[in-house]
Amino acid sequence: WPEPGGAMCELKWREEVVPCNTQSCDIEVCQNGEWDEWAPWSTCSASCEGGLRFRHRTVAHEANECGEPPDGPTRDTESCNRGAPCEADIDCLLADWKEWSACSRTCDGMTSRSRDIHQHGRGQGKWCDGNTKESEPCNPNPAIGEVEPAACSTATADCLLGEWEQWSDCEVTCGSGQIRREREIKQVAARGGLGCEGKLL
Questions:
Q1: What is the pLDDT of residues 165-180, one digit of tens each?
Q2: What's this model's pTM, rounded to 2 decimal places?
Q3: How far is CA 38 from CA 35, 60, 71, 73, 177, in A?
Q4: Which of 73, 79, 11, 6 is nearest to 41 (CA)?
């Protein structure tokens, strides 16, 4: 209010009202659909040599009548454990050599020894490398001046290799293995004969 002798306040509105949201109630705002986050990957279907795993997701917000549905798949798949071997890497292990056999003849004979494969190689381990049989001459021809046994011959003798044995069975049914075959020296070279040529293993 005015002080005594003062002028009255100018007439003005103490409150104002203006319109809002004047669009028609029949017009719908389009809402597109939205995906939720991917769920964690599932456990791989195989623990070695390759498998599959998957994950899924759901719709977080559905599209309304004029909106677009979310784009993309609900399920995702990928390979897993492709490089993992199904068996541990094991190195080949050869057993100790057995005792030499008795000489096959009293003159210019052969003696041999063998060893077993104690453990075959597996996976990325070392494969067996080395002979499982060895042969060497024994009871050679006597030196000059020595008494020659009756069984000894004076004729020249070339080395004679035996026939190859049959291939062994493969130690594994899959994943790469080894097969072996061997042959023996049936007669060593003597008195200037030709030496052996070729592998024994």
A1: 888 888 777 766 778 7
A2: 0.40
A3: 9, 11, 14, 11, 43
A4: 79
